[in-house]
């Protein structure tokens, strides 16, 4: 059967590095045990958070910029097909070539094919979430193509055969001594006298990558923005490695999610104010490069763009969740999140950690994707992420929405009712009648017995076990409130109705 | 069916609720009211904050200042369209680059400094914009040499980003520069100079 445009189709979910290998609670439990990680993270997130607050407070129109940013992105989502076609037309008219990729593996194949066409077996890479998401480096390696990450933090992570744990500072979980050791171990020709001074380490990275930059024929990048009305792409960075990759090689291949579009050049003025201040806490990042197709005599003469769906259309189909696609990957939400701060990025499994990851990953993969279904619960719903988000994504609301989608998807799946179902129906039976509740409350002293001498319950059975894994609960009171009330009222009637006085007397021991 | 049709089809059906694109509220600042003195002052201040070096000189003194900065540099590169009055000395150290006769990357790597003009600047953010005009040249020349000497015309300084971007043609190859190359990837300690030019000298001519 062939499908025609406009015909409702089932959402098609994304693949690649979006699926957690294990559920958040399991992974978080392990990560919590890593004190070094927690110390590094705490320091880093608090530093960026403070810097961000300071530079944001300098702008008198921050809230107006957020309003504009949020509305622009909402309008992008509403007009996405039209804007994609407009972008394609402009980018192509200026000598660029567009490729469309339904999912991670299709995108990987396209990029590998383009590289093969150049006859090269090495490429330099600008840090990019999209290529991280599709697992491009691993795929290229299988194909015999070496991809060199050129962002300092990505380089550290790549040399250590580790995974990034933060979308902005991927090596945030490593301290300077660990980094020195990685360089000594993995960097051919590293000076054995290398100290752990960050400036010295940065210069070692410069020396290591310099020749690669100057000789690379092919580069792979992501893009922060794409402007539909001109066909322009933008990359925002700090170190100059981006400029090196974007301008020196002959061939440039960019991979970008379809949601990264902005309607017009004018919209860039909004996002270039929102992004640097929200992400690194700077007034402006050191370098931003913009290119529109091919410029004769300046920069790469073969310019490709792979437009990636990989679950984005599925996320868009969720009316309550689609605003997760407004995300500009600034990382402000993870820097303020109390859960991220303690568990770190690896606990989230997917390329996208923190509050945005907790909604974006299950939206891209579908909540029924087993291990990702626990992500929407990885939050205290404190709302700090919403306040910090430059494009006003209401992350807490989407978390709650996804929790209910998850509960609905579980319903009817299991033949036997879960412990939660049993518990809930028992509670509803008990709470619906005063008599029943009273009867049950007679059991309270039993709980007191279970608590033992220190009056703390350390371990609950069944579904409640998770709750007591990291906390104790105090023993229940010796008598129930109803019991106490009944006695009090009896006493009050005998003493002429001064309940309150009686209580006070009792309390002061008079 | 092609991937293109497939993806556009999926997106269209994802939007079956036909969401309406909202009006974009643009109540944020579009202009600033600073006079030229204040703009020059603010831009210098922001650039120094990024560890760039700044000198403010009379327009007539720009060549002398450039010569001073180049005094202890070996060779330097200038784009073909650079104001001829800026690099006056007939100089054996000067290499000229143009799209028609570009220097190779290896050649650029052996050159100590680059002198360019600029298209615009933003005082509030300490940003200089290069748009590939003849006095700025190809993007590679302001990237590979380790020392960038950049001349900013005081008249080209705007207060805030929207003012500058509205004066620029977005389809040119653009580079926005705010301070020299920097990284904060190791324990968030800022280190100036990784891959881009490690020294940025800005001469504001007025
Ligand atoms: S959700 Fe908002 S705060 Fe979080 S990374 Fe995306 S844009 Fe930034």
Structure write-up:
- The complex is a heterodimer of chains A (510) and B (206).
- Chain A is α/β, with parallel strands linked by helices and 510 residues long.
- Chain A has 24 helices and 12 strands.
- Chain A has helices at 24-32, 35-57, 62-78, 80-93, 104-118, 129-134, 136-142, 152-159, 176-186, 198-215, 241-247, 265-279, 312-317, 332-336, 338-343, 354-365, 384-388, 395-410, 419-431, 434-441, 444-451, 465-468, 481-494, 499-508, and strands at residues 96-101, 122-125, 146-149, 218-221, 225-227, 232-237, 251-257, 261-262, 287-292, 302-308, 456-457, 473-474.
- In chain A, strands 1-10-7-4-2-3 form a 6-stranded parallel beta sheet, with helices on both faces.
- The longest helix of chain A has 23 residues, at 35-57.
- Chain B has 206 residues and is an alpha/beta fold.
- Chain B contains 5 helices and 12 strands.
- Chain B is globular.
- The complex binds iron/sulfur cluster.
